[in-house]
Design the sequence.
């Protein structure tokens, strides 16, 4: 069978590639015999080139969307790798369960969550998503099917969690969910004034709050550098009821000719958003959707950056150097005049990540997004890379499109061991880029 | 809780429809050729809320197996309310032109097996004076075109047969729904390049379910195919023979 060709794009809309597409319709389907390399593609919510493989075959997992078993007593769920977090939530929330870890969008697949070993606002208490994966099946290009867990094929398990789709196709996985009483979250948002204050709030909050994260105003300089809104929350106790939740989503209707996000709108947005709450602290009972997924309320919001798209830049820095390096980075961003609209700071905890290439490490993570501004932006990235390198931090492949191979290899010391588990029939644009010797 | 029999239950359109029914707790009897895939679908439908799901392996072209299968379904569920016929193959027109055997095989799968199944099903529902029969035909049955008239003529037979059946069973209160999908993104059409006219199986499932609730007789899905096919049917034969479709 000749495979149809399709143009696949990643979430930043900067990168796309014409690829042959193979659509398995069941988890029992073998991979078709191919001379080209494969790469699984979930919902393409990775920002850069880690989900693209120009010239290769994309294995689109959209039809691997069956549940296998769910035990409402223990919260153990097994399902195919193309099932989305959105679907899982719709099934399990009414039965009193929640995802153990979730990123800032629910439109991702289980396979994508494993391959990037995603983290969420509860990293300091729950670790990465991979911590809650009990086992999965991996289909290799030679047709082998490996059951992987901490006991069976443990090294292949560690290579595949956070393995960027390079070790084979995860066909299904079994995960442990987290108990909840209802869909509500008790939240508190605190306006804070500096980077140092962010770290103090983390110290104070991380013991009693399951979810913590901060939005940073990237335009403020000097005294205002690093100010932002710190949000903390917990699942609401039994008996909480908080009215109705309006689940209607809107769609960003078209790609504007130029980015809607620019120096002026950023300036305005950042100061208005910072002052959106007048009191220093505000408490609220929120439905889990706006709490975890504020951006999912606007489908295809990535269009607002216009035809040139946008980049994300996310790093994690070890605790020892965190505060100084974050200050330096925010200063570089503010002075570049290319401030970010969704700058997010988050403390990562000490629970070790199960994957050889998992991103989080104990310390602090900063995520930034920038409209594509060509060479100017690349210069800023070079500057930020230098700070990350000096602080012995690393960048997140799920968000990355630019990092030099040497920075990847320095940040992920297990890369050589990992390379031994890469399936020779699988590859990606990202992998070729960071393995290239300059 | 409805008791529903699905033939061709591994079809993407049938599976999407079964999910809507499972969410409502309906009881399902799934018939198909591949036991492993039927079991995987059954497990999924149970998680989604179906109160009872059973599977049964049968090739629709094995006519002698039809009645035992119907008996098994009725016995397992304690009667039947709805039957969905969804099996089919998209014939390779070029290959059919070179092979009488292949052509007749395609007609058997896409038309004769449906006729063979519908005959006892119709008689049982007529006697009960209730029930719904849903048959997936195709827009391709509206007019034979050079690019796929083997498949198209088989579907034309299904469309005409179900039209007659609908008239006959109307007085017994039995609903016969003929479903005419346009292009649907399913394994059947995996090698086609997809464009804006393409629909998802979930969309088609939603239309089928709604039509059934409204006791409709014929639907195009998505509905705009009604217009496209009206245009294609209205092209005069003299012109039709000269164009490529
Ligand atoms: C708005 C937004 C917020 C986000 N917030 C966070 C966050 O808070 N924390 C975080 O960690 N991430 C976050 N992300 C990133 C996102 O969670 C990851 O990129 C995720 O992996 C995307 O999943 P996907 O299903 O779209 O996979 P894709 O982007 O399609 O693919 C991602 C990788 O997974 C591989 N893959 C996919 N399916 C399989 C499979 N079945 N078997 C093997 N490999 C597979 C692909 O080959 C690729 O390498 C965010 C993204 C967005 C758009
Ligand atoms: N996709 C479209 O664009 C489109 C358009 C119009 C109409 N339709 C019709 O919609 C229906 C469903 O098709 P689909 O699109 O969902 O495609 P599909 O997923 O390929 O389903 C076709 C199903 O028919 C089954 N089948 C084929 N021959 C059979 C036989 N002899 N006995 C039993 N089962 C048999 C197949 O079973 P196996 O799994 O065992 O192979 C498969 O499950 C078909 O009637 C098709 O003609 C489809």
Sequence:
């Amino acid at each position: 069978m000749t495979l149809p060709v399709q143009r696949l794009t990643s979430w930043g809309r900067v990168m796309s590639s014409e690829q042959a597409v193979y659509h398995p319709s069941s988890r029992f389907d073998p991979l078709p015999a191919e001379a080209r390399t494969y790469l699984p593609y979930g919902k393409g919510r990775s920002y850069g080139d880690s989900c693209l493989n120009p010239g290769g075959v994309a294995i689109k997992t959209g039809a691997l969307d069956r549940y296998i078993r769910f035990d409402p007593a223990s919260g153990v769920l097994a399902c195919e790798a193309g099932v989305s977090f959105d679907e899982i939530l719709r099934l399990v929330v009414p039965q009193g369960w929640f995802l153990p870890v979730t990123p800032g969008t629910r439109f991702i697949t289980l396979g994508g969550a494993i391959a990037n070993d995603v983290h969420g606002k509860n990293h300091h208490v729950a670790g990465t998503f991979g911590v809650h994966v009990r086992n999965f099946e991996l289909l290799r290009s030679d047709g082998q099917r490996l059951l992987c867990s901490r006991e069976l094929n443990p090294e292949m398990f560690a290579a595949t969690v956070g393995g960027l789709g390079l070790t084979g196709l995860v066909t299904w996985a079994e995960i442990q969910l987290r108990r909840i009483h209802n869909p509500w979250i008790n939240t508190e948002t605190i306006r804070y004034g500096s980077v140092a204050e962010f770290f103090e709030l983390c110290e104070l909050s991380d013991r009693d709050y399951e979810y913590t994260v901060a939005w940073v105003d990237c335009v403020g300089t000097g005294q205002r550098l690093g100010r932002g809104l710190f949000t903390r929350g917990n699942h609401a106790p039994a008996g909480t009821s908080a009215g109705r939740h309006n689940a209607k989503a809107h769609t960003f209707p078209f790609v504007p000719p130029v980015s809607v996000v620019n120096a002026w709108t950023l300036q305005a947005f950042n100061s208005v958003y910072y002052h959106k709450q007048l009191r220093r602290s505000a408490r609220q009972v929120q439905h889990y959707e706006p709490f975890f997924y504020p951006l999912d309320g606007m489908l295809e919001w990535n269009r607002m950056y216009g035809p040139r798209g946008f980049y994300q830049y996310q790093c994690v820095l070890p605790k020892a150097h965190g505060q100084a390096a974050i200050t330096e980075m925010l200063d570089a961003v503010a002075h570049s005049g290319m401030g970010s609209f969704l700058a997010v700071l988050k403390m990562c905890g000490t629970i070790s990540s199960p994957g050889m290439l998992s991103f989080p490490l104990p310390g602090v993570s900063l995520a930034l997004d920038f409209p594509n501004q060509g060479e100017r932006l690349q210069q800023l990235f070079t500057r930020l890379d230098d700070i990350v390198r000096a602080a012995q931090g690393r960048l997140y492949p799920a968000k990355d499109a630019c990092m030099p191979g040497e920075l990847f290899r320095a940040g992920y010391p297990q890369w050589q061991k990992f390379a031994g588990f890469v399936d020779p029939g699988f590859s990606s644009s990202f992998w070729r880029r960071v393995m290239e010797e300059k | 809780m409805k008791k529903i029999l699905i033939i061709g239950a591994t079809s993407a359109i049938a599976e999407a429809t079964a999910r809507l029914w499972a969410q409502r707790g309906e009881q399902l009897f799934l018939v198909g050729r591949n036991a492993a895939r039927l079991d995987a679908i059954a497990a999924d439908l149970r998680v989604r809320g179906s109160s009872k799901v059973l599977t049964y392996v049968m090739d629709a072209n094995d006519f002698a197996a039809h009645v035992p299968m119907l008996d098994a379904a009725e016995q397992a569920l304690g009667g039947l309310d709805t039957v969905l016929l969804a099996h089919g193959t998209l014939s390779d027109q070029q290959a059919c032109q070179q092979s009488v055997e292949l052509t007749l095989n395609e007609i058997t799968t896409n038309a004769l097996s449906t006729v063979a199944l519908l005959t006892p099903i119709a008689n049982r529902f007529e006697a009960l004076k209730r029930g719904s029969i849903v048959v997936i035909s195709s827009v391709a049955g509206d007019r034979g075109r050079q690019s796929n008239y083997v498949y198209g003529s088989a579907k034309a037979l299904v469309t005409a047969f179900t039209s007659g059946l609908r008239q006959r069973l109307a007085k017994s209160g039995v609903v016969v729904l003929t479903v005419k999908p346009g292009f649907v993104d399913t394994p059947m059409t995996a090698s086609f390049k997809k464009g804006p006219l393409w629909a998802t199986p979930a969309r088609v499932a939603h239309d089928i379910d709604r039509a059934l609730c409204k006791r409709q007789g014929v639907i195009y899905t998505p509905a705009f195919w009604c217009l496209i096919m009206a245009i294609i049917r209205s092209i005069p034969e003299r012109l039709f023979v000269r164009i490529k479709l």
